[in-house]
Amino acid sequence: xxxxxxxxxxxxxxxxxxxxxxxxxxxxxxxxxxxxxxxxxxxxxxxxxxxxxxxxxxxxxxxxxxxxxxxxxxxxxxxxxxxxxxxxxxxxxxxxxxxxxxxxxxxxxxxxxxxxxxxxxxxxxxxxxxxxxxxxxxxxxxxxxxxxxxxxxxxxxxxxxxxxxxxxxxxxxxxxxxxxxxxxxxxxxxxxxxxxxxxxxxxxxxxxxxxxxxxxxxxxxxxxxxxxxxxxxxxxxxxxxxxxxxxxxxxxxxxxxxxxxxxxxxxxxxxxxxxxxxxxxxxxxxxxxxxxxxxxxxxxxxxxxxxxxxxxxxxxxxxxxxxxxxxxxxxxxxxxxxxxxxxxxxxxxxxxxxxxxxxxxxxxxxxxxxxxxxxxxxxxxxxxxxxxxxxxxxxxxxxxxxxxxxxxxxxxxxxxxxxxxxxxxxxxxxxxxxxxxxxxxxxxxxxxxxxxxxxxxxxxxxxxxxxxxxx
Amino acid sequence: xxxxxxxxxxxxxxxxxxxxxxxxxxxxxxxxxxxxxxxxxxxxxxxxxxxxxxxxxxxxxxxxxxxxxxxxxxxxxxxxxxxxxxxxxxxxxxxxxxxxxxxxxxxxxxxxxxxxxxxxxxxxxxxxxxxxxxxxxxxxxxxxxxxxxxxxxxxxxxxxxxxx
Lengths: 471, 164
What we know:
The complex is a heterodimer. Chain A is of the alpha/beta class.
């Protein structure tokens, strides 16, 4: 944690002004000594384009004078936001996108079902640490999980970056977020970042880079959860310091200047819940206990990885979700999907009553999958709970961790997951029965088809995942 | 003169055009007709070319969707004045040629439905209740706006404006 001393000296033996991670990356990329507030023009190491903006991106390239992409090997294209196509209009747009990919000769193309752009960008190694990456989706901040400066931009900015291989950026101020201690069982980095959003607010990091200290050695997935959700504070980038992927030069200098510093003690952190319709309206879970839910979504670039599905399965394995509740699980990539299949996690979740969707953004943004009806209440592991985000503007979206999601599916209400993780089987039965009895009547009890799955549930329970999930 | 449409803090792009009415969901020729359909029903029908949106903090937060800005452009919105803007939205507006100006006072002065004048040259929004000074834009952004957006700028100049 903290910075090391920067060794190189400037002209005249004067030590250069200490730099944040954002200042280091943008200085290196632009070839000048850049500090917060400076405007730079920087080459990009990659441009990420996703399905929902392709029409506008193509229009931008056309209007720029029928430009081709500047480097076909540095462009990654994804169909993930509304995939597989839910309507003929979307299907047409996907067809046009595929024709464009072929015509441009872009090799890095992931079609519907391969997964969320951000998950694939990080896990397949398309994010070069220490470089600038422009993405068409706002959660491109996720690339800071491996020390890249990932910035989400609109379609025209993306078209310009595709044509020129460069973008303009104002070097952001940085906010230093330090995590101390270890979270207790049942508390995750999702809770940690929601605690930070609660502290900083939806615009507290506007134009800024959020620099995370003390978590560089966490699994990559946890770092994606952190970096990606900096978008919810208005940040331009979210960068994790001291990751194993970072090159030697990429560390925050001692004495670097921060516009704000926040420290979160993980050891005392409670599970967090964001109350609709604001993602910074965050409370400790004790203030939301008993809130009924109709549908639970487990997925997204924030929480759709194997570890998230395993956390949910650790609570749901061998049980059935509440009869009036629906659970939709959408793995964030094919790799995560297959890993969760191979170790029995998906079987356990399906046997518990989950609908498993194909990898992608799923219902996170209300375009496909189980969109919400008016008055429906959702508990989502994703990152946004704006009005209308997942379907009807009259639906309500609570945001929480995968553990909280599993308990909500099991009981039909929001509850603290920690007692469920500690309980014996009998205690768990009693806990679930009590919560279900307290839940006001909503929806209708569904018969779960395939009750032969008793055997499958047993098989799933015995499969490889017997391994302790200890995080 | 133009009508002022006044909004509060943290107006997100999902309110401007909900995802379910994205161009690729409803077609390029229709999406702008859903501008503010949930947040301000009737907006798309009533807004007139040159009208000014006035807002509080963090205007345009949330999703990077440029079609939220494209919808406003299509409807002829003449400018947006807010206490502060979300960064992607701000860039999108500059890129598509909609003037976006910060003003600490405008949202307190302008009432929804007021007739106002957005005077870019003088750097002020004139309302019936007084004049709100506008924070000047960086020359880089001004040059792009003057060209009508970044695409037009690049077509004319072949590269970005010079950075200081």
